[in-house]
Amino acid sequence: MGRLENKVALITGGSRGMGAAEAQLFAEEGAHVIIGDILEEQGRTTASKIDTPDTRCLFERLDVLNVSNWKSVIQTIVSKFGKLDVLVNNAGVTSRKMLLDTSEAEWDRVMDINCKGTFLGIKTTIPVLKNSGGGSIINISSQMGLVGADYISPQYQASKGAVRLLTKSVAIQYAPNNIRCNSIHPAPIETDMTAEVRDNPEAFQNMLRRIPMARYGKPKEVAYAALYLASDESSFVTGSEVVVDGGWTAQ
Ligand SMILES: NC(=O)c1ccc[n+]([C@@H]2O[C@H](COP(=O)([O-])OP(=O)(O)OC[C@H]3O[C@@H](n4cnc5c(N)ncnc54)[C@H](O)[C@@H]3O)[C@@H](O)[C@H]2O)c1
User: Fold this and answer.
1) 209 alpha carbon – ligand 1 mean position (Å)
2) Distance of CA 60 to the CA centre of its chain
3) What is the pLDDT of residues 153-172, one digit of tens each?
4) How far apart are CA 217 and CA 68, in angstroms?
5) In 3D, which of 194, 175, 146 has the Cα closest to residue 238?
6) Which residue of 52, 139, 185, 211 lies most exposed, with the fewest beta carbons within 10 A?
7) Domains of the chain (ranges plus CATH)?
8) Largest alpha-carbon pair distance within the chain?
9) Spatial separation of the C-alpha atoms in residues 141 and 88, rounded to whole Å
10) Is the model's pTM score more than 0.70?
């Protein structure tokens, strides 16, 4: 018996990286998974590798900033599976320019995808979770949603800090509906998002010096935290923040 047996989970940004690792692990634990992403080809390939007759894994095109995309993905999920139990708001983007080099357009892009995209997902999904008798919303924030940094533009931190507190308000407002909402705060993880830094020896060493465990995390190390929050094992956990950062924020 898997830890997510018969649950239905929607994971945004699941075509690659941490979202793909979560899709794989959730399916191994018995869930049906829907990957929603703008990376279509990669998303279809990822989903087809995970898909089995017992635990379905489907790809749906979803731009987290597009309300009609959200509505149609939710409609597809309900018509195929009859319910939704878990939403992982994982889609996100970063930006590496310093504050004075950051344009308004770049500020808006990062804030919109990371923060407004999460809001739209929660807003569209809550009615379905209510109809399903409750559920678990997992918002992927960052260690940068907890502390500041001296080496990148602050809009990434601002967007992830906003996700942290959005999470807590949703947790309080929908606790009576048995809908839990928690955030995960990963620190540098080996994905495409961090490839540029890892490929630059000097930048890479600078990052390693900031991490007490002196290494990047693996996507699966974050997926295990998401698995706990998605499962009924965390049935009394809401409005909380799970930090998976190799000790970054312990300093
Ligand atoms: N990698 C890290 O070190 C790290 C650390 C802390 C937090 N995070 C967060 O974890 C999440 C996953 O990041 P990752 O490292 O796997 O990055 P990634 O770049 O490998 O994956 C991000 C995914 O989000 C998708 N995406 C981007 N914009 C989208 C949109 N508008 N609609 C739908 N999908 C969209 C991308 O297509 C991609 O598949 C992000 O929210 C990121 O901010 C990453």
Assistant:
1) 23
2) 16
3) 899 999 999 999 999 999 99
4) 35
5) 175
6) 52
7) 8-189+220-244 (3.40.50.720)
8) 53
9) 11
10) yes
